[in-house]
Amino acid sequence: MAVKKVVIPAAGMGTRFLPATKAVPKEMLPLVDKPVIQEVVEEAVRSGISEIVLITGMGKGAIEDHFDISTDLEGFLASRGQEELLKMVRDISRMVDIISVRQKEPRGLGHAVQCAKAAVGDEPFAVMLGDDVVDSEVPCIAQLLKVFEKYKSTVVALEFVPDSDVDKYGIVEGEEVEPGIVKIKNLVEKPPLKDAPSNMAVIGRYILTPEIFSAIEGLAPDDRGEIQLTNALQDIANSDEVYGVVFEGTRYDAGNRFGFLVANIVYALKDGELGPQLREYLKGLVAFWGDR
Question: Are 32 and 271 in contact (CB under 8 A)?
Fold first, then answer.
């Protein structure tokens, strides 16, 4: 069965980016001149998915507005003859169809996915986290879809992380069945390094089957009151096949300030207009600061 929908959890408070996120959703923070969530949505569209199930919370209306028609703005741009900007704005509103579902309590990623049950229905679906921006020639979620089409089972994106970051991720144990494809046996949520089965971390791209909802329903909250998707995936792996894809591309963790800053620098360097100017400026910075 084809994957037609992608679930994007966007209910978090964004406390790492306060005070910027006091009134602006963290998903709307700019990656150069484009909201981070638009970059994620465009990855889905390039992968052939244009139905978005947005899991939102209080104060997230700006995300829905961004992908909606803005009559006043379009009229203003048309009156000024700014056709290029007008086309850009119209393309955003026509890019996807969005269903919004409210997550009334911040109870973890597993709970956020469970909130999408009625909207997704009895079919496989993708999950994409806005915290992970993936720069790749073939969209990351498209790489997972290719594996899903072959194995017809749950698929997650994997990345090798340094020892210092193992306790920040869900870590997997498994065996490689094809180059870059791992059949997963065990998943451990944020283990200390000494207990980690590997350095392969699950990052924010998933293809899930409807069985995930039953697995989530059977979970008890952790000591923070959250329902962890990793634990539901372990339940699936105990009775069925779960595969991991060591994806091709570069991931930027836009969920922390440094990762967000790095992503902005990299994407600005790739910009045809900004790139040359920024390169020259950075050379000057390096020359000025040196070893200071």
Answer: yes
Q: Alpha carbon of 232 to those of 157, 184, 199, 203, 216: distances in Å?
A: 16, 13, 20, 15, 5
Contact 37/27 with Cβ under 8 angstroms?
yes
Bridge partners of 125? 208
Please choose, from the candidates 106, 107, 146, the residue with its C-alpha nearest in 3D space to the C-alpha of residue 126: 146
CB atoms within 10 A of CB 179: 6
**To which residue do tokens 């949520």 refer?**
189
Structural domain includes residue 210: yes
Phi, then psi, of 152 in degrees rounded to 5: 55, 35
- Asked whether residue 186 is assigned to any structural domain, the reply reads yes
Query: How many domains are contained in the chain?
Result: 1
- Reported as a single tens digit per residue, the pLDDT across 76-99 is 999 999 999 999 999 998 988 999
> How many helices and strands in the chain, by DSSP H and E?
11, 13
Report the CATH number that the domain containing residue 79 is assigned in CATH.
3.90.550.10
DSSP label at residue 197: S
Give this prediction's pTM.
0.92
Question: Token pair 């899903």 is at which residue?
Answer: 148
